[in-house]
Structure formats: structure tokens, C-alpha cells
Amino acid sequence: MHPFCSILFSSVMLCGSICAADKPNIIVIYTDDHGYSDMGCQGIQKDLKTPNIDALAAGGVRMTSGYVTAPQCVPSRAGLLSGRSQNRFGVESNGESLDGFNAQQTIAERLKTAGYATGMTGKWHLGPAPDIVRHGFDDVYYKNANRPGWANFNFDGSDRAPGKENSKLYHLDANSAAACAFIKRHHDEPFFFYCAYRAPHVPLDAPPKYLNRFPGEMPERRRQALAMISAMDDGVGDILNTLRKYHIEENTMIFFIGDNGAPLKIHKIDAPGGGPGWDGSLNEPLNGEKGMLSEGGMRVPFVVYWKNKIAAQVYNHPVISLDVAATAVSLAGLPSDPQLDGVNLVPYLTGENKNAPHEALYWRWVAQAATRAGQWKYLRGGAREYLYDLSNDHEEKHNLIKEHPQVAARLRTKLNAWAAELQPPGLATRKMSDVWDKYFDHYLDGELSPVPTTRTAPKVQGWLTRDGSSVVKDGVLQIRPNRNSQEQILIAMAALDLPAQLTAVVRLRALKPGRGGISWRESGQKGFEAANVAGFDCTDSAKIQEHRVNIVAKKKIIHVRLLVPVAGADVESIEFRDSKGKTLRQWQFAK
Fold first, then answer.
1. What is the pLDDT of residue 475?
2. Are 93 and 75 spatial neighbours (Cβ–Cβ below 8 Å)?
3. Is the separation of the CB atoms in 517 and 491 below 8 Å?
């Protein structure tokens, strides 16, 4: 090589190295149905254990008015990853055609042109798993449940043939492991990683490792949500430790954002099973829930962290998930794109720009539309209209539309102008459904929905009693039948994650001789099958007797029932042990 060429080549390589070093890594952690109040750093709930997320917020920026683009999974994710309001390309809600999203350029695709390595793990929800790579994500570890996913790299950072994976890890732990493996693979080059935990979204499926962190009396669905959030928190800690291992924490910007508010189903019923219903998460003090353009449906946990680049602070101006793409594009050194609907947040968070990032924010979701401009928020659902002063009423309790008609008219005009640009145009794509009318009645119009009647008694340590009542007294759980009932009394525990083969150890005293037993539901089963029961005989005795029941299932056990003789029984303890005799779960009813 000619000496001059050698010098020129070295200069080019040096420049490339410097330019690469100047480009920060970007990690987006996106949680699922995670209510606004469920981060310890918010200072609202006292039962959380989120030390790593709290540390992220303490060292970064906690947004008090951080929003997403929709109160539902698919449109929220389409907006985040494209950096454009998903209403512009027809992804209005779950179940819509994804053709519009498929035509968008994602953050990953944009950053690849700037030399970034790109990857994702967790929940996709925007088409088939093998198609994720077509949206700019080269490294994929798709896994959002305790079943096989799809991957093209391994947890040790090596390549693997694209296809089915079955790591056997709890899916949230697998997501964290994949994130750390990606950092290991690409720590010496700029990277963009999207970690989309499916938590605390149903089905609620936390294993004992996390459930055991939350003992005591509480709704079982709340316990599950706390456990799943705790699992994500462990993952955040693992990610931070991996960045520190490779000395790149200071060159990595992290976003931690929820995809929409928690689904409460109005009454937060602690229904057995981990499936549809309240996910155990909370939106307090915000009003409403997932599926509403009230604050509880779209104001979410929102943290930005960039060590020694952005000072720790609490930021009160409204921001939105659309800002992630605009920020990433700017930090990658790419030219600004007028099609992006967000703004680069860095100048605002460093104090270089003292103004609010947005003059106004806009939303449309099916039959609802809203805009927020400064302190004011205008919301409509069908023919209903609301105006809130969020500086004094972030709980949306006082509709001021009659007191400030001019403010409402101004915001309505702005919202109409924005909605005219959408696909399709207008303030709604369908009429209000009966469900959303009911939600608006309850949350915004003060017509409280009655609590559904149930034939179940309150839970005791998570156990739900059917066809009877239960109370802890004199060191036992006293289970008694309803008057004149001839039904089999039972107590049930749902949302379990137990191995297929185990032993149940039950210590109880039957009030009269009878037949007791354990029945169970396996993963994938919609109900309790007749074959899934193991019985034992109860004798009339003044003493507590121990009954051991061997359970042999084909798949993991997610739901169990303790069947009690019709006259009732006093239960001292219930325990589940694995095949080696190790205690997996245990309940002692002695006070």
C-alpha cells in the first residue's frame, strides 16, 4: 500500500471509530399493562419492590406526565416503533390490518443506516415472529409466554439458526437474559435494543421465586402483578450491570415506558385464574383504565436515564412515546424527518431548551379523541365532552366544559384539525360500544357501576372459598358450608406455576367423616377435568390429621382446589412439595 494511502486509510478508520464512539447506545424497555402508580419511585404504592427501576429514576428523569399514543397494545407499539401517530397509517386498535405499519420505517431501520446493531426481545404483537427481522431488528429473541418462542441468537451471545426456541426459562427472565446477551454481542459498537416485557399483562404467571417476595394478605392478582413487576426489576438490574461490565453505561440512553394503563375492569375483582380480567396493577390516583383516553388509560410509567449526560430530575412537562424515535434519530446523527411526530427530548432534559417539548399532544382511539395543551385537556367519547384542568385535577374529577367553553372550543378546533390528517380522517372510526359507555358512566360521569354479585367468600391468604365461608380462628382455617348446601365445599388457588409431579400435604380436621381431595388444572386446560383429581378419606376426629396426595400431571399445574367434606373442616396448613421433597408453596393458617 502506498504510504499516503496507508495514512489516509488510518485516518478514515480513526474517524469512523470516533464517530461510532460518539453515537450513544439506546435501550427501550417497554412494559405491558403497567399502571402509572406501580413504580416505587412514584411514591404512591407501598407494596412494590422495584429497587432497580427506582434507581434508574433516581439517577435519571422521572416524567410525571409521560404518555403513550393509545390505551391499547397494538396501536401503542406501532406508534412507539414508527415514531409516527399510528392513526396516520390505519393501525387504530387491536385487530386492525397491519399493512400500514408494515409500510413504516421503524427506529431500528433508521438506526441501521447510521451503523447501529439492532435487536429486540419479548412481546412483538405487530405480526408473525419471523417477520420481526423485516422491520430492522437483526437480533431477535421473541418470547412473551412460557411456551416456545422464536430466536436467532443464544443467551451466550452466539448465533443460532433462526427458528423455534425453548429455553425453559420464565419468559421475563428469558427477556432479561436476551438483553444482556445482545449487549455482550455488540458492546463495542453502537446499538439499539427494544426489550418488551409482557408484564404485568395477563395471563398472570409469576413463578414462586417472585411470588414468595410478597407474602401476607392481599388480592392474589395483586400478588401476581407485584411478582411480575419484580421480575422486570431484576432484569433492569441485570441490564445495568451488563452495561457496567463493558464500561458503556455512560454511553447508553435508556427509556423505561409502559405501553398503556392497567386494565381494572372497574371493580378490580380478584377472580381465580390468571387469565382475562384485572391484571393486578394500579393506575391510582389517575382516573380510568386501559381502553380509555382518560389519564388512567394512557399516562404511564416513563423514565429516561443517561448517566452523567442528563441530570437527575422530575420533569413535569408532557412528553409522549413518539419522542423516542425523534430522540434516537437525532442522537444517531441522522437528519431530522418531518414525518416523525415526536421531538428530540435531549435539549429539554438538559435544560438547553426551557420551553415545553410540545405545544399540544393528540390522541384518537376508536370512538374517543383527546388533546392536551399545557394544563388543559379536552376529551370526547362519542357525543360526550369533557374539559379538565390537569394542573389542579389530574384525577379528572371535575368537568369544566361549562365553566370554560372558550377553552373547550379552542382545543376542539385544534383536535379537529389534527384528526383531519388521519387515516381515516375524523374524531372517531366507530361508535361508542356499550362497554366504553359503561366505563365513561362510571369513571367520568359519576354513575357508579354496581359490584357484581358473587357466591364466593372473601379470600384468605389467596384461597377463594366456594359454596361456603372461611375464617381463620383458633389457629386453623375454619371452612363451613352455606346453609342447606349439599354441594362439595372447596377452596381454590389460581395463578400457580407448579411442576407436573408433586405432593400435596394437607393438615386438617374434618367435622364429620367424608371424602376430601385435591383437583388441579394444567397449563392449556380451560377447566378442571374429571380425571384430574386425587382423593383422600377424612375421619371424624378431634385431632388434626395429615393427608399426603401425590399429583401426577402431564403439564405444569396452574390452578388447584382443596375439596372439603360437605360438613366442613378445619385446615391447619397446605403445602406443595416437589419430587425431591422440597417445599414449593406453603400456607400456615395459625395466627
1. 87
2. yes
3. no
- Residue 118 and residue 94: Cα distance in Å, rounded? 26
Does residue 542 surpass a pLDDT of 60?
Answer: yes
In CATH, what number does 365-443 get?
3.30.1120.10
Q: Which three cell numbers stand for residue 377?
A: 385537556
What cell does 38 get?
Answer: 406501580
Contact status, residue 478 vs residue 570, Cβ threshold 8 Å? yes
Instruction: Look up the pTM and report it.
Output: 0.78
CB of 454 within 8 A of CB of 464? Answer: no
| Cell output for 105 | 420505517
Enter the C-alpha cell of residue 36: 402509572
User: What residues have CB less than 8 Å from 147, skipping those under 6 apart?
Assistant: none
Helices vs. strands in the chain: H and E counts, helices first: 13, 27
Q: Residue 197: in which H helix or E strand, if any?
A: strand 191-200
DSSP-derived secondary structure for 315-358? E-S-EETTHHHHHHHHHTTPPP-TT--S---HHHHHTS--S-S-
Length of the chain: 591
* Residues near 509 by beta carbon (within 8 Å), at least 6 away in sequence: 476, 541, 542, 543, 544, 545, 569, 570, 572
Which one of 3.40.720.10, 3.40.1190.20, 3.30.530.20, 3.40.980.10 gives the CATH number of domain 3-355? 3.40.720.10
For residue 203, say if its preceding peptide bond is cis, omega within 30 degrees of 0: yes
> In this predicted model, what pLDDT tens digit does every residue of 237-277 receive, in sequence order?
999 999 999 999 999 999 999 999 999 999 999 887 788 89
Residue 430 · residue 366 · CB < 8 Å: yes
- 8 A C-beta contact, residue 226 and residue 279: no
Summarize pLDDT for 47-95 with one digit per residue, the tens: 999 999 999 999 999 999 999 999 999 999 999 999 999 999 999 999 9
d(CA 555, CA 523): 6
Local structure of residue 192 (DSSP, 8 states): E
Q: Is the dihedral of CA 204, 209, 213, 218 positive or negative?
A: positive
Cis peptide preceding 208, ω within 30 of 0? no
Can you give the residue ranges of every domain in the chain?
3-355, 365-443, 464-588
Question: Would you tell me which CATH number, out of the four given (2.60.120.620, 3.40.630.30, 2.60.120.260, 2.20.25.420), belongs to the domain 464-588?
Answer: 2.60.120.260
- CA–CA separation, 307 vs 59, rounded Å? 7
The band of 11, judged by pLDDT with boundaries at 50, 70 and 90, is very low
Residue 531 C-alpha cell reads as: 380425571
DSSP annotation of 577: E
**Angle of the 220-245 helix axis to the 51-58 helix axis, nearest 10:** 60
Please name the amino acid found at residue 222: R
Pairing of strands 464-466, 489-493: antiparallel
Residue 9 has pLDDT above 60, yes or no: no
CB 222 within 8 A of CB 47: yes
Distance CA 69, CA 78 (A): 9
- pLDDT of 18 strictly over 50: no
In sequence order, what DSSP letters do the residues of 454-471 get, joined into one string? Answer: -SBPPPBTTBEEESEEEE
Between CA 102 and CA 569 the distance in angstroms is: 60
